[in-house]
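[stage:ingest] chain + small molecule (2-acetamido-2-deoxy-beta-D-glucopyranose)
[stage:ingest] validated
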Amino acid sequence: MMERFQVFLLLSLITSGAHSASFTLINRCPYTVWPGILSGGGSRPTPSTGYVLGSGASTVLSIHAPWSGRFWGRTQCTNNGGRLVVCTTGDCASGQVGCNGAGAIPPATLAEFTLGGYGGKDYYDISLVDGFNLPISITPRGRPGCGVSSCSRNVNSVCPGQLSVRNGSGTVACKSACLAFHSPQYCCTGSYGQPSTCPPTNFSRVFKNACPQAYSYAYDDKTSTFTCGTGADYTITFCP
Ligand SMILES: *[C@@H]1O[C@H](CO)[C@@H](O)[C@H](O)[C@H]1NC(C)=O
Ligand SMILES: *[C@@H]1O[C@H](CO)[C@@H](O)[C@H](O)[C@H]1NC(C)=O
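[stage:predict] done
[stage:export] tokens:
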């Protein structure tokens, strides 16, 4: 009886998504990227919360479902004797390679995941709600019928001047209109606090036109969320 119960428990753990997903992070940018990872509230921390990937480099980590959290890339970080001091974009202000529970300071392109979520499925998206700093794609592996979500355009090159974050002559990141203007219309707050009262704006359309598969603002249409059956592995590519 006891043994049968244990087998049942084990089976329910397996079918409820208590598997581990393998994440491969690849840097195809012509510059070094410092990926950061933030686990959501209630999710177990990942084995590491930050990496350094030279151009062309990759790393693999495994994450136990259920889990939710986000990945992003930091750029132009200054390294001082092995310690990170500061990154020009996507900084998490930890002063280290690991972000240790700190998130990206916007603007930053985010790859967001819920593993083993509603219905035991995985949900993932690319979000430009906090702005853009570098192109990212999410490629599921090992399960048929799961879509690739990609924001491969360099939004910095089409960023309106009012949203642009510059370093020298170049735009290194593009703020969301919410971040730049803090207004209810762009942040979908106050009387704009519902999908029906917060339509796209001329600013959010700049992001949507460049990266149609990504969330361009808080109440963007739900086509930007992708779903995959449990048990998939994922590749996150910087500059796909
Ligand atoms: C601007 O870019 C240069 C070259 O990539 C970098 O060394 C520097 O730290 C950046 N400036 C700021 C303010 O982050
Ligand atoms: C959007 O509209 C505002 C107000 O009319 C204007 O100031 C801004 O330049 C426009 N932005 C873009 C990207 O067209």
